[in-house]
Input
Amino acid sequence: MQQLSFEILLNSTVLAEDEIRLTKQAWQIFRLFYSNGRVNPAVVTTGRLRAMAGQYNARLSEIRRALIPLGWCIDEFHAVGGNNIYKMAPVETSRYCRDRPEKVEELRHGFSGQTQRN
Output
């Protein structure tokens, strides 16, 4: 697992200009991809996300909005039967970022005062 140097906090209702914060559901989903300063190499499926949040696509967008300015993204890989696979990936190698540049640009400006934490 890759060691990273940023932190995403719980609770977007107390957003500070220099901190990234997620709603509770988004934070719980984010922890599937990243914990203890490391990217989790395990895959996350649509079924698992759906069990955690009915609007999991909205939660993934919230997570991407926090990650993209930090150089990371959540990639989606389509699978037969609709049980897609999701993984955290660097922006430079992310299929999501490559295939949706206009969406990435929109998400990149999601947290105007966002800075990387060391």
